[in-house]
Amino acid sequence: MDFPIFPMRQIHLDFHTPPSIPDVGAEWDADHFVRTLTEARVNSITVFAKCHHGMNYYPSKIGPVHPSLKFDLLGEQVEALHRSGIRAPIYISVVWDVSAAERHPEWRQVSKDGKLVGPGPLEAGWPYLCVNNGYADELVAQTEELMALYDCDGFFYDILMYNGDGCVCTNCLAELRREGLDPQNAAHRRAHNHAVARRFMERVSGVIRAKLPNAGIYYNSRWGLHFQDEVQHYSQVEIESLPTGGWGYGFYPLWSRYGRNFGLPMLGMTGRFHRTWADWGGLKHPDALRWECGGIVATGGAVSIGDQLHPRGRLNEAVYDVIGEAFRDVEAVEEYCIGAEAASQVGLLVLNPNADKANMDAQAGNVEGAAKILLELHHQFDVITDKTCPDFRRYELLVLPDRAVATPETAARLRDYVAGGGKLLITHEALLDETSGSFLLADEMGVDYSGPATSNPDYFQVTAPSLHTTVTRPGFPYSLYEGPTAHVAPRSGTEILADAYETYFNRTGEHFISHGFTPPIAEKADYPAVTRRGDIVYIYGPIFSAYQKHGNLAFRALVGRCLDLLLPQPLVETDAPPTCEVGVMRQDDGDRHVVHFVNYHAGRRAPGHVEVLETPVPLQDVALRLRRTGTVSRIFLARSGEALPFEASSDGFCVTIPRIDTHEAVVFE
Ligand SMILES: [Zn+2]
Q: Do 146 and 251 have their domain in common?
């Protein structure tokens, strides 16, 4: 079937069922299936051809059909869904397949110490298969078989991922050597695995597109910065992110701001579970799903909610009561979400030559911390790299958080950007050239790098009145806790906004004072902590990773005031609290702006406790200023249609939102 618009309300219906389970599909009732989905306002659902156990749920001639399944479950699902106008992409497990691993042990991934990747023979879990062998042929044949049997809307290939240390199965090892790569080198092994996976994707996507040029295609479990190197094989972006299932509530807001820049439809995937996949006994509070859906549509994403079908084949109505509550909420605003693009003023520029992992810099947390600060300050930003953003001038300001390894070409682009009026916030060792030991933009920044500070930790004291706040007070020495900071020498004409202070000594067994920290000495250090030259502000320490790790509000306030100096006219201003995410989207070539508020719960959580959301605390009379040009005839709430009185001035449009529960969208037309 042809679905002209990417469906906003999707389900990912897991169905992993080993051969030992009896009566698979025994309670299948097509009418109940589609009625339950329709009542829950679902308009797309991913159904299973083959699961992690390697069982197929249709009369396949390629792999084993589940032994207790007596009919074509997949075929009946697709047929019933299409009859009801619901899209039905098809799921195929790739790297995890118990049956294929048993039938073809030689297809398994092999780690560098010679072990088959996955659990041991007596343990529960999924064996990892390599796709550099006949298994790829089997998966291609299965794809062709499915396209011949059914009206296929799309395919979801799950778990296309390699053991982090790289596969050295017989085929991979021979190929590594043949291609002049060093099998002893972990980076070479990983690069080779990427090449193998991309060869597989190119082949599979080619087979699909030859027959179904408009089919959806997604390869899961590969998400990360390296997406930019393989985007051509995909038809959409799907960000798997179950906030209470290990990803946390920070993953999607960060990664969606990267994933939305490829010109493809984007899907944010959460789950109905209390914890993670296969949590048969956990069902989320509908309020939590409302927040998660609001957070997804506020970034321009469609929503996918994960569920798992019981082996007997009947959907649980209580689950779809909960999902229905959330999807009715989405449906009420989706007219103002479909086809929208982000109105971003700030680019969070990630320059990381080691892009083959999902977590951009797991140890540092610099990108995560920067995203958290920008979200809490309500700045409108995208996460970009030099590859995904061909023209930095799309953004008024770029943030380079703590570390950024730039090529000479990218450094030249940044110089042009600054010369053309672009603004930069650079922190710590970002843009440091490791070979020369100097900043690539030292002339523009007006500071020279001398090396790491010897005092660790050290302190900073804000001197510029424009940077003083409730938590960055004059006369108080704050510490980033993380060091060493950078010892930099300001050039003449560079403005110093904060001083640095060294301590008496670094804490060691030979000399220490008190519990943990050494106090600052009275005289300020011979290096500054914050400087400004033109439209570039530089902060000497890893303030973004320090915020991610320590959560000191002084760090956020300092960054916020530096951004205010550079960007005195932010796209939105609001008195909504930092826990409330604000996302500005544009529709109709910018004639319509939609400002989303996601009023996250400011609940107090004990360590180790899952972040559970329930019962919104409404925000009342939230002030909003949107700086957009052109005329605005009407401002109204997307959900209720209620018109809001507003004031127009040369400095934008001001409005007061009477109440925000979980999510509200304000339309400027
Ligand atoms: Zn291999």
A: yes
Residue 647 lies inside a defined structural domain of this protein: yes
Spacing, Cα 210 to ligand 1 middle (Å)? 27
Asked whether the beta carbons of 444 and 415 are under 8 A apart, the reply is yes
Q: What is the 3-state secondary structure (H, E, C) of 144-166?
A: HHHHHHCCCCEEEEECCCCCCCC
What separation in Å is there between the alpha carbon of 176 and the centre of ligand 1? 10
With cut-offs at 50, 70 and 90, classify the pLDDT of residue 2.
low
**Rounded to the nearest whole angstrom, what is the distance from the C-alpha of residue 511 to the centroid of ligand 1?**
53
Q: Cis peptide leading into 457, omega within 30 of 0?
A: yes
∠ CA 498-425-571, rounded to 5°: 115
Which of residues 650 and 461 earns the better pLDDT score?
A: 461
pLDDT per position as a tens digit, 99-147: 999 999 999 999 999 999 999 989 999 999 999 999 999 999 999 999 9
Judge whether residue 1 has pLDDT over 70: no
| Residue 640: both structure tokens together | 């209720």
- Structurally, how many domains does the chain consist of? 3
For residue 599, the enclosing domain spans 579-668
Q: How far is the CA of 168 from the centre of ligand 1 (A)?
A: 5
Query: Has this prediction a pTM greater than 0.90?
Result: yes
Tens digit of each residue's pLDDT (9 = 90 or more) over 542-575: 999 999 999 999 999 999 999 999 999 999 999 9
Protein residues with C-beta less than 5 angstroms from the ion ligand 1: 130, 132, 167, 169, 172
Q: What is the CA(131)–ligand 1 centre distance, in A?
A: 7
Cα 175 to ligand 1 centre (Å): 9
Q: Are residues 445 and 381 in the same domain?
A: yes
Measured in Å, residue 126 CA sits from the centre of ligand 1 at 16
Partners of residue 348 on adjacent β-strands? 383, 399
Q: What is the pLDDT of residues 409-459, one digit of tens each?
A: 999 999 999 999 999 999 999 999 989 999 999 999 999 999 999 999 999
Rounded distance between C-alpha atoms, residue 377 and residue 577, angstroms: 9
Distance 163 CA to ligand 1 centre (A): 10
Residue 351 Cα to ligand 1 midpoint, Å, equals 30
Among 291, 312, 339, the domain-final residue is 339
271 and 403 in one domain? no
Alpha-helical runs (H) found in 84-185: 98-103, 134-149, 170-178
Ligand 1 midpoint to CA 205 (Å)? 21
Query: 591 alpha carbon to ligand 1 midpoint, in Å?
Result: 51
CA-CA distance, 637 to 634, in Å (whole number)? 10
| C-alpha 387 – ligand 1 centre gap (Å) | 29
CA of 532 to the centre of ligand 1 (A): 51
What are the φ and ψ backbone dihedral angles of 445, each rounded to 5 degrees? -75, -30
Q: For residue 667, is pLDDT > 90? A: yes
CA of 169 from ligand 1 middle (Å) equals 4
Question: Rounded mean pLDDT of 285-310?
Answer: 97
CA distances from 328 to 45, 217, 316, 457 (A): 16, 27, 18, 52
Mean pLDDT for the chain overall = 95
Please give the distance, rounded to the nearest whole angstrom, from the Cα atom of residue 259 to the centre of ligand 1: 28
Q: How many angstroms separate the alpha carbon of residue 59 from the centre of ligand 1?
A: 29
